[in-house]
Design goal:
The structure is a homodimer of 327-residue chains. Chain A contains 13 helices and ten strands. Chain A has 327 residues and is an alpha/beta fold. Chain A folds into three domains: 46 residues, 434 Repressor (Amino-terminal Domain) (Orthogonal Bundle), CATH 1.10.260.40; 122 residues, Response regulator (Rossmann fold, 3-Layer(aba) Sandwich); 130 residues, Rossmann fold. Chains A and B meet through helix 4, helix 5, strand 2, helix 6 and helix 11 of A and helix 4, helix 5, strand 2, helix 6 and helix 11 of B. Chain A binds a DNA duplex (16 and 16 nucleotides) through helix 2 and helix 4. Chains A, B: It comes from Homoserinibacter gongjuensis.
Chain lengths: 327, 327
DNA sequence: CTGAAAGCGCTTACAG
DNA sequence: CTGAAAGCGCTTACAG
C-alpha cells in the first residue's frame, strides 16, 4: 500500500495536479468551478489523501510545525498545562506544536535547521548564537517567559510581579519581617533571580526590611534548618516561597520545629497545585492564568507569522492570590 | 542568507554530490579516499551544512523523527521524566523524539501521515484503525505501557503488579481490611482498572476480604468522606492509593476526621513524588524505575527499526516499596 | 573510485 | 479557468 499522492487525486478526478493543489489549499486568486472543486475534494476524501509534509516543506521552505523548545526545568503541572493549551491553540490554526525537551545534549541549531519549523517558541532563554541564526534564517522566534526580554513583541509573565504580590499579601496581613524561600535547582535560576528581585523591591517600597533569603530543598530537614535560621535574631513571621512545593517544605519544617502556621509563621506559595489544598494548613498561593499565558504566546507566534489573529487579551489578570489557611 | 546545500559542499570541495552524500552518510559499500573524505567533512563543517530533513524524508520516505503520542492523561512527574529519558536515548541514536499531546482534537491519522515518522511510540492506547493503518504503512508502532498488550515485543509495566505490591506490603504489616482509593479522572481509567484488579487478586491470594473501593478527589472533604465510609461497618485499617496525590488526599481526610496514620489507618501511595517525603506522616509509596521503563521502550522501538541494540535490562526490578511513616 | 541523472511529492510562476 | 514544467534538496541505482 503505497502512499496516495496529489497525482492520484488529479488522475481520479480528471484534472491536473495544479488544480488539485489550488482546491486543496484554497489558493487565493484562483477561481475553480464549484463542480470541479467538489469533485476534487470528494476524491481526496475518498482516497484518504494526506499531503506529504516533507514535500510541502521542501518545496515551500517552511513547514507547518511550530517547534516548542522546553528547557531543562523541573517539569511541573504549570508547564504541562501550558503546552497542552498551546497544542490546542496551534492545532486550530493548522499548525502542529512539537515539543522538544532541550537537555543541552545536542546543539539546538542542528535540530531547527533539520526540522525547518515555521516558527520557534522558546520557553527558556536561547543562546545568542541560536537566536541570531534563526532570525537570519527568517524563522520567527518568540521567546522566553521572562521579563526584560529584548523582543517587545514577546509576551512575558512578569516574574517579579508574582513575588511582589506575595509580599504585598503578607504585608497586608501585618507581617514585617519576611523571608524568601528559593529552590535549590540551578536550572530555575533565571526565574528565581527575578522573583527575588521582585520580593526585594516590594519590601523596599513598603518600608520593610530586606527579605531573608534562603534555599530550601524538598526535605523536611532542609525546611527545618531554614526555619531555625529565620527564627534566630529578629524572628521572621512570614515566608514567601518560590512555588508550592518549596512552600510545603517550609510548612513541613515549621511542623518539625514545633511551630504553627500561620500563628507563628505565615507561608505563601505559587502555582496552586492540587496538593496545596490538601496541606495542613491549606496553603495560600498565587494562581497563574496559564490559559491566558498560552493565548498570549500563541498570539505572538501567529502574529509573527502574519496570521490575522485577534489581539491577545489584556494581561492585567495574569495572577492573583488564592487565600487559604496558611497566611 | 540562503540555505547551505549538499551541492554547495560538493562544489566547494570539488567533488560530486554523490560523493558528498556517501561521505556524510557513511554509506556502506563505498570506499572514498581518506583525503576526499576529510575534505568533504571539513567543508561541510566550515559551511555549517545541515542536511534538509524534508528533502531526506521526501527522498527516502522515512524521517528521523520518532513520534511520541502522549494521551490526555493528567500529566505528572512520572511521564515527564519518562519523556526526558526517552529524548536522551533516542538522541543518542540520531533520532529526534517529538512529543505530540493527543487531546483527541485532531485525528491522529492526519498527523502521522503528514509527519511520516520513522516510528510511533504510543504511550496510551491507539484506536484500532490508527494502529492498523500505521502497520500497513510500514511504520513500526510500539505501544502502551499497559498489561495485556497484544504486541509481545512491547514493554509493559505490569500495572496490576504495582497494586499487588501495595497490598502485600499492607498485609505484611498485619492489615486485613483494606481499601483502594481510586482517582476520579476518567482518563486514567485504563490504569485504574488494572491496578484495582491487581489489588483484588492480591487480597484473594492472601485470604483477605475484597478491598473496599472508592473514588477520592484531591479535596480534603472527599478524602474525609471516603474515610468515614471506610470506617463504618468493619473498619478499614489500611488504604492503597492509586498514586501519591490520592494518598495525600486520604491522609488529609484522616486528619480531618481526627484519625491518625498509621495508628488508625495506614496509607500507601505510588510514584514517590518529592512531596511524599514532606507529608505528615511521611508517605510510604511505590517507587517506579522510570529510567528502566524508558530504556525498555526505547529498545523496543530501536529493535523494531532494526537497530542493533543491546537487549533491555531485565524487568524484575521495575518497582519497589519505599517505606516511610504512613504504614 | 566518482559523476550524471532520475525521482521522492509538492507548489507556483508561466502559458495557453 | 486549467495544464505542462520547473525546481525545492536529497539519495541511489547506473554508468563510466
Amino acid at each position: 500500500m503505497s502512499r496516495v499522492t496529489s497525482a492520484d487525486v488529479a488522475r481520479e478526478s480528471g484534472v491536473s495536479r495544479t488544480t488539485v493543489s489550488y482546491v486543496l489549499n484554497d489558493t487565493p486568486g484562483t477561481s475553480i468551478s464549484e463542480l470541479t472543486r467538489r469533485r476534487v475534494l470528494d476524491t481526496a476524501e475518498r482516497l484518504g489523501y494526506t499531503p506529504s509534509a516533507a514535500a510541502r516543506t521542501l518545496r515551500s521552505g517552511r513547514s507547518d510545525v511550530v517547534l516548542c523548545v522546553v528547557p531543562d526545568w523541573t517539569a511541573g503541572p504549570v508547564i504541562d498545562t501550558l503546552i497542552d493549551d498551546l497544542t490546542t491553540l496551534f492545532a486550530a490554526q493548522g499548525l502542529a506544536l512539537l515539543v522538544f525537551n532541550d537537555r543541552g545534549n545536542r546543539p539546538l541549531t542542528e535540530l531547527w535547521r533539520a526540522v525547518t519549523p515555521r516558527a520557534v517558541l522558546a520557553l527558556g532563554p536561547l543562546t545568542d548564537a541560536d537566536a541570531a541564526a534563526m532570525r537570519s534564517a527568517r524563522i520567527p522566534v518568540v521567546g522566553s517567559t521572562l521579563d526584560e526580554d529584548p523582543h517587545p513583541e514577546t509576551f512575558a509573565v512578569p516574574q517579579h510581579g508574582i513575588a511582589e504580590l506575595q509580599v504585598e499579601h503578607l504585608a497586608a496581613r501585618g507581617h514585617r519581617v519576611l523571608a524568601y524561600a528559593a529552590p535549590s535547582d540551578s536550572r530555575l535560576a533565571a526565574f528565581t533571580e527575578r522573583r527575588i528581585a521582585g520580593a526585594r523591591a516590594a519590601c523596599a517600597r513598603l518600608g520593610l526590611p530586606e527579605p531573608r533569603l534562603r534555599t530550601v530543598e524538598l526535605e523536611v530537614e532542609s525546611g527545618a534548618a531554614a526555619v531555625r535560621e529565620w527564627r534566630a535574631g529578629e524572628p521572621v513571621t512570614a515566608v514567601a516561597a518560590y512555588n508550592d512545593e518549596v512552600a510545603l517544605a517550609v510548612l513541613a519544617g515549621l511542623r518539625a520545629e514545633g511551630l504553627r502556621a500561620p500563628e507563628d509563621v505565615a507561608v505563601i506559595g505559587v502555582d496552586d497545585i492540587p496538593l496545596a489544598r490538601l496541606a495542613s494548613p491549606a496553603l495560600t498561593t498565587v494562581w497563574q492564568a496559564i490559559d491566558a499565558q498560552a493565548e498570549h504566546l500563541a498570539s505572538s507566534v501567529l502574529a509573527a507569522l502574519g496570521h490575522d489573529v485577534p489581539p491577545p487579551r489584556p494581561t492585567h489578570e495574569l495572577f492573583h492570590v488564592v487565600e487559604r489557611a496558611s497566611t
